[in-house]
């Protein structure tokens, strides 16, 4: 590795997330239906949350996404998607497609 230090990041535990009232996640994509795409709703994977029960405690939390130009998009967690800690969030105005794979911050409301 030629002297480069490998930096490992420790994921927060669920207790730390709920104690601080703050979490970080990544946008996976828009919510999809059989024949349609809901542009105002996105799926978000929260780092440190790995099951449906813990993810359901995040419903109602505020979500903030900032793009590279400094624009801020605000949303709200509205539900759980699946059994692996993915949540659904609704944004107004809708998130642009460039936001997919971007990082978001969740805050307790």
Automatic annotation (TrEMBL):
GO cellular component: ribonucleoprotein complex; ribosome
Annotated SUPFAM superfamilies: Translation proteins
Keywords of this entry: Ribonucleoprotein, Ribosomal protein
Matches recorded under Gene3D superfamilies: translation elongation factor selb, chain A, domain 4
InterPro entries in the cross-refs: Ribosomal_eL33 (IPR001780), Ribosomal_eL33_sf (IPR038661), Transl_B-barrel_sf (IPR009000)
Sections of the chain in a coiled coil: none
Keyword Ribonucleoprotein annotated: yes
GO molecular function list: structural constituent of ribosome
GO biological process: one example: translation
Pfam families recorded: Ribosomal_L35Ae
HAMAP family in the cross-refs: Ribosomal_eL33
Family: Belongs to the eukaryotic ribosomal protein eL33 family.
Stated name of the protein: Large ribosomal subunit protein eL33
Organism annotation: Pyrolobus fumarii (strain DSM 11204 / 1A)
Organism lineage: Archaea, Thermoproteota, Thermoprotei, Desulfurococcales, Pyrodictiaceae
């Amino acid at each position: 590795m030629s002297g480069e230090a490998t930096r490992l990041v420790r994921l927060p535990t669920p207790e730390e997330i709920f104690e601080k009232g703050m979490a970080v996640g990544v946008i996976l994509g828009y919510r999809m239906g059989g024949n349609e795409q809901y542009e105002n709703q996105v799926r978000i994977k929260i780092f440190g949350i790995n099951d449906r029960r813990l993810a359901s405690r995040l419903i109602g939390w505020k979500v903030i996404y900032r793009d590279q130009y400094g624009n801020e998009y605000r949303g709200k967690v509205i539900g759980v998607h699946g059994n692996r800690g993915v949540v659904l969030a609704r944004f107004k105005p809708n998130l642009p497609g460039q936001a997919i794979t971007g990082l978001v911050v969740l805050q307790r409301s």
